[in-house]
Amino acid sequence: MNSQAQILKIGIFDFRLNHLLVIGVLVLSFSISFMIRSQGADYGFELNEFDPFFNFRATEFIVENGYSEYFDWHDDLSWYPEGRNVSATSQIMLHFTAAITYQIFGGDSSLYDFTILFPVVFGSLTVIVIFALVRVIGGTTAGLFAAILYSVSVPILLRGTMGWFKSEPLGLFYGLLGMYFFLSGIKSENKKIAIIKLIVGGIILAFGLASWGGIQFFVIPIGMFILVLPFVRKDHEFIIWSIPIFVSSFLLTVLIFERPGTGFVFGIGGFSLIIPTGFLISCIFIQKISKIKNKTRNGLIFLFMLIIIGSFSLIINEEARILPLPSFRYLNAINPFLTTDNALVDSVAEHATTTLTQSFFFHSILMIFAGLGIWIILSKKSDSSSYIRNDMMVFSLIIGLTGVYVSSAFIRLEVFASIALIILSSIGLSILTKEIFNNKNFYENLRTKNILKISFLGVIIIFLLIPLVFPTNSNWINSAKAPLTILNGGSNFGVVTNDWKGSFEWLNTNTPEDSVVAAWWDYGYWITTMSDRATLADNFTGNHTRIKVIAQTLLSPPDEAWNTLQEMGADYVLVFVAGQRVDSGVDKPVYVLNGGGDESKKQWFMRIAGEPVQKYVHSDGRSGTDYFWNDTLLGTLFPFSTLSYVDIRNTEVQAETYRPGLTPLYGKDIKYPTDGEGPFRFVYGSPSFVNEDRVLIGVFVYEVNDNYVR
To answer: What are residue 681's DSSP bridge partners?
Structure first.
């Protein structure tokens, strides 16, 4: 059947069979993405992780108080007593976009429910955006492959599941859309349309940066692409004004926002576009006044000099700080060999370096397809230039290499490796598809042609299906299915409980409205949003010193900790313990504790506090010493005591004291009773502790006794 066959004609637009195919693939890609991202609904309908709760609260503030009031909002519940300037420290466009779309499309739904679905919708809509972007680079077929691959990419799915009301889904939507308008603008033959697209592209890319700081990694390939444009484009009269329009539009829009604002524009980020733009204009001028045979040579000499000077400038700036530097995690992405002695940065799971095993799981099939794409693009035997323009070919290689490079720093940035591999894979598959389907000289007869076409499609489908369904319990689809964090506390157990939600309800209804809660910073956003109570620290981690003091307080003797908490104005202390009840043959419940609560995080408390780990834990790096359990605030707030040590595989092997290879067993032991006169009073234990459930997701609240006398 002819793919150009007309189906419907509306005015001057002919709706053809190939248009129906495009729509069908995009609908399929959107649906696949939406369904995989929504698997968390099997466990419950809640926001996921930690940051989404603050983002919901900020969006709620806009909906209830207005957009102008948002810029004057100083959040008194955050980082008590200093508070937080929200608009200067937040992803403004995430909050504004959510508020605007809710007011337009929210209907009768609650804002909370709307924000749960927000990342699923925008994450799934991005398959259309990446289709448009890759279509500009390599054609419609490449765009369709990109949409399909994007819909099943694990790193992208993991950072955009149901309830993931964080920066990445909207940031990627805006960032990729901004790049689409940029590339579409410089490809446009109509100058008026080109100007509009370039201005819109700059604005939208800035929206992406104001939604997620990680979008500045899109600035790197754009800056590098601008550097090579004078050598791959002959229409210098066009690019000499079109590129400055895009860059100006982007930087001026960034200046509107408090964050990233001037720090980005007049820092490394802004200059990574300003300098290439200046080079482009200067290089075109040099080539214009040079002799014909020396044009390219002189331009390359100028580029080489710029690279040398720029490299030395970066080294000097690292010491002199002439230009503002981004935070360590962004510098680490640019230079993966950088190290830090900041234990707080290291303690964040998403800052962990990606292992080879993880990389292969994330990108297994994409690696094969991307390698094919690079080979086809660079192969002299393949006439890829007939399918993709030279400048677009260069851009795809630049974004491919930079995407893989920056993602090597830590696991959160694997989304950029995915985008890079998707673009390269799509181009390679597209060119190969066109060669197989359109090359008439490739076949001996009609039968060979049909067999090869069917075989090619079958191989591609099989390659895509393998990681989606195998292994059965750890494939690409299952990787995006897990209990929402607030339902299991982020523990190691795949359970759904009401422990955390019940704890917040208790705090909200049983403590004074002006109460201040001390807890590890992980739980700060939950407490302020769900309990409407102030916290000493939260997930913004804007004050590393405060977090260090909290860590030191938790590891201090209880009397010293009581003094510190009094000075900090804390009224309550919250701790979290995760574990399992085990069959012990005795009447009272016995537990194994190492399930991902504070009992598992205590090693990070020690590193952040600057304390020697061996003072608090045994040689296995997990089991607490007698000093930890009896002489630290954290140990005494855990309502457990060590009973014995056993070999889990052979429970007949037991010891009263720690021995390597043995696991400690714990029994209930509330050290600070509710009616006691000690520095703290036990006032709340969550249901799984009270009911002695098989899996313990224990949230415990203690009142700081203001009347305590040492």
So the answer is: 703
